[in-house]
Each structure stands twice: as C-alpha cells, then as structure tokens.
Amino acid sequence: MSNGLPLVFDGHNDTVMQLVRGERSFFDKSETGHIDLPRAREGGLMGGFFAVYIIDPNVAEIMQKARDEGRDPSQALGEYAQQYADPANWPDPMPLDYAQTNALAMLGTLLKVAKESEGQVKIVRTAAEIEQCVADGTFAIELHFEGAEPLDTNGDALEVFYAAGLRSVGLTHSRRNIFTEGVPFAFPASPDTGAGLNEHGKELVRQLNRKKVMIDLSHITEQGFWDVAELTDAPLVATHSNAWNLSNSPRNLTDKMMDAIKESNGVAGLNFHVGFLREDGANDADTPISTMVEHVVYMADKMGVDHVALGSDYDGATMPAELKDAAGLPKLMQALADHGFDNDDLTKIAHGNWIRVLRDTWGE
User: Fold this and answer.
1) What's the rounded Cα separation, in Å, for the pair 322 and 309?
2) What pTM did the predictor assign?
3) Is 67 part of any domain?
4) 150: domain CATH number?
5) Within 10 A of 344 (CB to CB), how many other CB atoms are there?
C-alpha cells in the first residue's frame, strides 16, 4: 500500500450472497455493501475467505416476499433473525438438495468472477498462491462453507466441492444441522449453550482432516469447540470471533478457548460486527475503531500476536460507521500502528498469520 501499511487477507465475508442475487457487480464501485474490487484496492484488501452461507428456506421466502413488496430484504432478514435467539424456534435442518443447489450457485458465481476478471482475481488453493497474490497484487478468493449443510455424511459431496476449490468449512451457523449446532443470537450469554458434535459431526471432522480442509470454529457451541479440539490433528481456527471477556456474546471466545487456539498454533480473526465488539452488545454503528483495537490487544495479550488475524464479517454484519467498508481498512491498521503494533506485528495480523495457519493445515 502507498501508505506503507500491509495488505489485508480477511478471514470472513458474505459478499457472494449479494453477488449471486445480482444486486451489484464485484467489478464496479458501489455505495451498498462492503466489498467490491475498487473498494478493496482502495483499502488494501487483497482477498480473503468468501463464505458460502445457505439461507434457511423459510427465511428465503420471507426475503423474496419483501423484495416483491418493494421492501428492504435485509431488514426482513433482520426481523426474522430475532427468532434465532431462542433455539426452540430454530428451523429443522434444511434438505440436502436445497443446500447443495444453493451452494453450487454461490460457488459458480465466485468461479465466474475469477474467470471474468482477466487475471485480477484468483481462486486460491495453496498458501503459496496467497503469498503470490500478495506479491503481485492479485485479489485472492478462498472458498469457504459457513455451515456444513451442503455436505453429506458419506463424504461424497466433500470430494466434489474440494475439487472445485473448497478449502475451509465452518461446521455450523446459529442453527442446527445434521452434524452439530451453533450458538443462538443472544446477549449476554455464554458460548456454552448447547450440544456438541454428534457421531456424524465427529466423522465429518475426520473427513476434513483427511482432505486437509481447514475447520472453522466460529458459531459452534463451546462443547462443539472442545469436541473438535479433541478430534482434530490441525490447528484450531475461529475465523471471525472476538474476546468474550470484552463482549459477552456467545459468538466470542472465552480465555480458555483462546488458550487452546494458542496451544494448537491456531488463529482467531477479529470480527468487525459491532454487536460482537461492544460491551453492551448493541447493534450500534456508532462504535469507535478504538473498540476494535481493544479486542486485538486483548487477544494478542492472551494468545500472542502470532495467533491474531482479521475476520471482518463484511457484507454480513453491521460495521462501525467510522470504518464503513473495505475502503476504510487503513483506518483500522493505522489505529493498530498508533497503539504500538510494529510493522512485523501488523503484517502478521493483516495476512501473515492466515498464510501460516493455512500452510500448516493444508500442508502446501
């Protein structure tokens, strides 16, 4: 970057949800959403984990009805999401064919973006490819499942999606699936909210380990976290979770969980969503960047700077207004520098720690 700050490889975004619906182009600068290629270039974002998240069928119907009525579908989703605060109201696990159809549409969209970019965008499958993207300015997309709903218990779909470029899987979102369950949308609450992995979930961890696919522990219950820790032979990773002691959201990490991430040589990525940053858990965009810095400092003090990265949740959450979108990333990096993180530390947080943990997990 011209300002001397390191390029950012981000641990989580939901951008493809907007692209697949044709709401905007990845190549044109937009005033909506958080990531497109022009704003990424402006902010020094050189790529990241692009999440395939499948909306529950009944939520999809609610959002489509809102579009048909000329209302903002994201607002309709937000209204429905309040029901996810109570696991008793969670929908049944979605049908496999529905999940796979939607996953294919999203993966296809990202593959088309790379093809149509004329070399500006690359689907990355190795840590070396990410390093090369950092060096030559290519935008790097890592294909990620936020929720294992498109996967079957036999591992057949995993083989196909892996061949398409899938390299990381979050086991669940804030709901149940056939493998495990996540934490609810609640505040304040402990991440110790429900069951861990069932036998299918334990087998899925083994399948992912055999394929050297990274397992993402953001969203899973604390019991699920410890179940994975007991089974996996890879570093523990939470792509977009903060410090629970600073913000008592069940989506955040307790000190004990951060100790385990450190001991496994894993990584946790700072989530930019204001509700996971604020002490009061409020969905208030009037949240200063200094609050983000407080979480980074806490996580670095607890785990060491080698285990802290960024996992924005762009295009899927409420950003601090001061930051706004991907073009605002230099404000965060400068705030970290002003706090006292040196250039080596900033480089690790910005992209180095992701490259290291992915190389350790992928083996290439």
Assistant:
1) 20
2) 0.95
3) no
4) 3.20.20.140
5) 11
